[in-house]
Amino acid sequence: MSEFDAILLAGPTASGKSDLALALAERAPIEIVSVDSSQVYRGFDIGSAKADAATRARVPHHLIDIRDPSEPYSAGEFVADAIAAIHDIRSRGRMPVLVGGTMLYFNALVHGIAGLPTADPVVRQRIDERARALGWPALHSELAQIDPEAAARIHPNDPQRIQRALEVFELSGRPISAWQRDTSPARELRFRRDALAPLDRARLHERIEQRFLRMMAAGLLAEVENLRARPDISQCATAMRAVGYRQLAAHLDGEYDLEEAIRRAIAASRQLAKRQLTWIRADSGWKVWDPFDPKECERWVVEVSFVCQAAG
Description:
Layout: E1 6-10, H1 17-25, E2 30-35, H2 53-58, E3 61-62, H3 75-91, E4 95-100, H4 103-111, H5 121-134, H6 136-146, H7 148-153, H8 159-172, H9 176-181, E5 191-196, H10 201-217, H11 220-228, H12 245-252, H13 258-281, E6 287-289, H14 294-309
Helix pairs in contact: 1-14, 3-4, 5-6, 5-8, 6-8, 10-13, 11-12, 12-13
């Protein structure tokens, strides 16, 4: 039996996580569990870089297309779903490989998660209206007054996390950082934790740009149009705040032209990658690999394939 219950493979957007996991699947009995807050939603296909049907037929994928985009999905729900998927895969003598870039989900799975107040649409709408009037950096400044610890971790241009922190404080009267300190491990599971952290940041930025342009060529704008046309999906829905979707939706609302939307989406993707790398480097439990070094990639595949072979 393997000494691990699951393999975790984290990394910034466009760093090659999925390709590396698929290379591992050629040599070891694995199934992939998505750790992506957009891939859980049906209809969010191109912009989330969701594996296509052929790939999913070849290598089983889990936690993809499990939620309607009109519905919220929390880190706590992810932990419960991921644990169920891990036990299911292990019961078949295969190794779960959790792959993605939603570092909040990884953190919740490994370190536990606080019982935060549930989302309140009325409070969120009120915060959104204030953000439209004042701008998210101004709301970030307000957050710094009530919860400097959270504000120090959250970028002034990260509306989803600013909104959530303000919402939690309004609902509970308690800073979100205080809630987050009251965490406990989700379950007694043994993880091998690997993370991709490119040494060549300029190359990562170039890959991010080229990847987004490929998404646009594949029809991402039409995908966003179709989602916005659905009467059950609010513009404030969590799913619509994802990088790329948010900027293209703003373009369709007439806030700026398509060229500017693309520029903003690429810039936001690069900022996201920076935040993902910050999460990784702040947690010494991750073993770091350079995805742009072919020898390191091959070494990772060989090393992890031995771990996976013992899964049965």
